[in-house]
Amino acid sequence: MGFEFVLSGAIGGLLIGMTGVGGGSLMTPLLVSGFGIPPATAIGTDLIYAALTKAGAVVCHHRQRHVAWRTTAWLLAGSLPGSLLTLALLRHLTTLHSLDNWLRHGLSLSLVLTAMALWKKRSPSVHRASLPITTIQPWAPVLGFFIGILVTLSSVGGGALGTALLLALYPSFSFARVVGTELAHAVPLTLIAGLGHWNLGHVDTALLLSLLAGSLPGLWLGTRLNRHLPENIARRGLTLLLLCLSFSLW
Fold first, then answer.
1. Domain range spanning residue 28?
2. Alpha helices in the chain (DSSP H)
3. Which among 99, 195, 213, 92 is positioned nearest to 151, based on CA atoms?
4. In sequence order, what are the residues at sequence separation of 6 or more whose Cβ sits closer than 8 angstroms to the Cβ of residue 17?
5. CA R_g for the chain
6. Does the model's pTM come out above 0.85?
7. Which of 44, 92, 121, 232 shows a CA-CA span of 20 to 30 A to 176?
8. List of residues 6+ apart from 155 with CB closer than 8 A
């Protein structure tokens, strides 16, 4: 249980608690570029790490009433089928020698897409009260389907892209409510995707335990800092960080 992996888990937990982002979009490229972990192993291990870490964050956000459970269900209606379809494709591709290289480029592309989505500003506040939620909820399963594909393929999207999607579709939500709702959506999605990767032999148990050992203290602190984090600063800072991580994978 290397100290560097425990520290990485703590940083990931802190960012997940504060922003809903950090499980895949930050941890996976760190494991691949920083520690030389094969992409398939990094993705599979990080999915299980993210599911377990975010489950604790959901409990904290639920107690603070930051989770819109109906919206979570709409997203899962699309993301879970997308994940299962991608797992079936990956099972077929495991016979190819270029799988790790293919996953690396998929990870880099996912980071760019999530960075672009996060950079987009929310709708002006004057329109928020007049925007009926019922008119935009049917889009959630469709977009959730593509999130399910990205998460399973690269472990990216469950936090960053999902957060950006909720910011766009539900402009009346506070940033804390967006984070709590996306975390509630990400837990079952990353768990299903992670178990699928585990079945494919893509999970390193020792690495997983090291990451989890550091995640709980960081998670506890992050969920308490969340309400004090300005949305604009969080969005722009994450965008720049994701772009840098994407370029490091090429």
1. 3-248
2. 3-19, 27-29, 35, 39-63, 69-93, 99-119, 139-154, 160-169, 175-199, 205-225, 231-248
3. 195
4. 57, 60, 218, 219, 220, 221, 222, 223, 224, 225, 226
5. 17
6. no
7. 44
8. 23, 24, 27, 28, 42, 43, 46, 47, 50, 107, 190, 193
What are 44's two structure tokens? 């599979």
Q: Report the domain count for the chain.
A: 1
Q: Give CA separation, 25 vs 31, 54, 74, 125, 227, in Å.
A: 11, 14, 23, 29, 22
**243: Cβ contacts below 8 Å, ≥ 6 apart:** 111, 112, 115
Residue 160's nearest CA partner among 214, 90, 203, 107 is 107
Per-residue pLDDT of the chain (250 residues; tens, 9 = 90+): 578 888 888 887 787 777 666 666 777 888 887 888 888 898 899 899 888 878 877 887 888 888 889 889 999 999 999 999 989 888 876 555 566 766 777 777 777 877 776 666 554 443 444 344 444 567 788 888 988 988 888 877 666 677 777 877 787 788 788 888 888 998 999 999 999 999 988 899 999 998 888 887 887 787 777 666 666 666 677 777 777 767 766 6
